Amino acid sequence: MGTIYDLAKMTGFSITTVSKALNNYSDVSEKTKAKIVQAAAEMGYLPNAHAQSLSTKRSWTIGVMFSEAHGVGMMHPFFNAIIESFRKATEQQGYDLIFASRNLRNRDMSYLEHFRHRAVDGIVVICSDQMDQHVQELIQSTIPIVVVDMDSADCSVVYSDNITGGTLAINHLHELGHRLIAHIAGDTSTDAGRARIEGYQQAMEQLDLPIPDGYLVNGGFFSGEEGKRAMNELLALPERPTAVFVAGDEMAIGAIEAIHEAGLQIPEDISVVGYDDIYVAKYITPKLTTVRQDTETIGQHAASVLIEQIVNKKRVTTRDVIPVNLMVRQSTGPVPE
Amino acid sequence: MGTIYDLAKMTGFSITTVSKALNNYSDVSEKTKAKIVQAAAEMGYLPNAHAQSLSTKRSWTIGVMFSEAHGVGMMHPFFNAIIESFRKATEQQGYDLIFASRNLRNRDMSYLEHFRHRAVDGIVVICSDQMDQHVQELIQSTIPIVVVDMDSADCSVVYSDNITGGTLAINHLHELGHRLIAHIAGDTSTDAGRARIEGYQQAMEQLDLPIPDGYLVNGGFFSGEEGKRAMNELLALPERPTAVFVAGDEMAIGAIEAIHEAGLQIPEDISVVGYDDIYVAKYITPKLTTVRQDTETIGQHAASVLIEQIVNKKRVTTRDVIPVNLMVRQSTGPVPE
DNA sequence: CATTTCACCGAAAGCGCTTTCGATAAATTT
DNA sequence: AAATTTATCGAAAGCGCTTTCGGTGAAATG
């Protein structure tokens, strides 16, 4: 503890000089700089971030907002991996992350209001719901922002190449001989959900494969429960698919459960390919074939495009589509005879 | 945007009165309060948090530190679930969470220093490594603190009843007829790892079961890889266990993979019980029997004990041990003949 | 030697807010 | 009617820091 005044008294210099010394101004002699820096170290002096922010109008904080749309909060492994990567990248530049709520001492307020209150330097939002009012409000504001996993023309975005992801999965299944390929989709209110459907449809058309009625089933918001339910719908179909492309790994794991409960084998009876490549994907039985999203680069790119805006004090709107790749493991195999 | 000065000018009152009105002081008439509040709403006025903190010495922020010991960061599902619950509880009281790094504009500093710099009101640390220097430094400081998943005599702690968790698992296996029960342990540098070993050993002794050489194998830091490796060691033993208690779910999933690769069935040949009950536990094949940690209550309790300290401006040292319970699913079954 | 330049330092204002304390006018009491 | 209380407001100091701008003495220049 101790303020800049204490340091000034201790060293005999004015607070002006102390501040300059600490900030490495050129109009302070090396000798006094050294004295001051050492004294600071001795007394364990640390500048008060609030005072600094107040006077510089720069807080070195980045506000993060998770879409709480479906109560996943910060628990979804995919979102999480991204934020972790984002955090590493931004902390290297000296920024701290702040998770703001919509509650300011029991006063209800929007995220934008809260972020303005906290005077964050920039905002990262991880959200897949186009319609989220709070997100739209953030996007329309003047604060530097980057949004992940969603598209928008009004701000910088970074997300996976989900269309290619879909085609990758379908082509892989096609090469294994599958012709009856279903898709358990993410909700169409999400960009990711829609793009993967798009990829599925494009690939099927390209391959001249029909999409039978009921082969495109909505799996909702990527949960295990919904994946299971959706798979059961597929299993009840008159012409059962031999392969299914699932728009999320947790959903895929739910689907696998359904398949097993129906007494069927994977991949002998049905092949399944997931999406995301969450941590456990390669450990479960059968090891999950899945489209891997590069959370590492997504986080890094998001960080750099945000920081660039902050540094240049200028909002930009870029679109950064990150490649995905297929991890072939053991949940897919040749089509059954 | 706009400051309190603008509001003052706009309403014709002094900034003193404006501030008081906004903070609901009693020496401002209801009439002028109403005027000011409305004007504030009209111009979208929001108080600057930094200025407030500077003058009140209260920042309404809580610093969170994850033990980065083994590079898991905020990605581990168990830690994550806790933080999510903690976040919900604290945000209801008006606090924001800040994830600080050890990097302050390319100056290296400790977490304590960083938190002091940011002037957080309290700290939550989620860590299992007793020896972490940074954590010890935090604990010895004067800032209100709560640590999760670790024991300490010098601060408030909240963690699961891991000893009971261990005995729960062993007793369950014993009831199923198992006598050859091994344990893939978490590293003994972690409290959780040690306590679960303790529970294992206590239960085995209680049941008069010997622990053969090699039946207690270190699984390191709870990763899938290490679980797999440890399981392979067990499989190579002259007398193979019929059941294994694994100190973490991800580790258990790795162990399951090893068992399957050895051509053995679960639970027919070997039963396995995990620890944590992570999200996917109930979806994988076979559905994992596991000791469930109550992340919800852990987070809530951590929040309330921290906030209590903040409000009372007085550090307390409490120990809050949260009960666990066994989720019996399909990875455990009767001992093979 | 007079003048300009340069290196180094500090006074002071300002960032946006809270809070103490005193001032004033109105209301109440004697 | 005088004295006291009450209700309402504002001046000013302070929170800890940055930054502009001016000042001083020493060194460099003519």
Automatic annotation (TrEMBL), chains A, B:
It comes from the Bacteria. InterPro entries: HTH_LacI, LacI/GalR-like_sensor, Lambda_DNA-bd_dom_sf, Peripla_BP_I. Residues 3-56 form the HTH lacI-type domain. The keyword Transcription regulation applies. Keywords: DNA-binding, Repressor, Transcription, Transcription regulation. The keyword RNA-binding does not apply. One of its GO terms (molecular function) is DNA binding. Pfam families: LacI, Peripla_BP_3. This is LacI family DNA-binding transcriptional regulator.
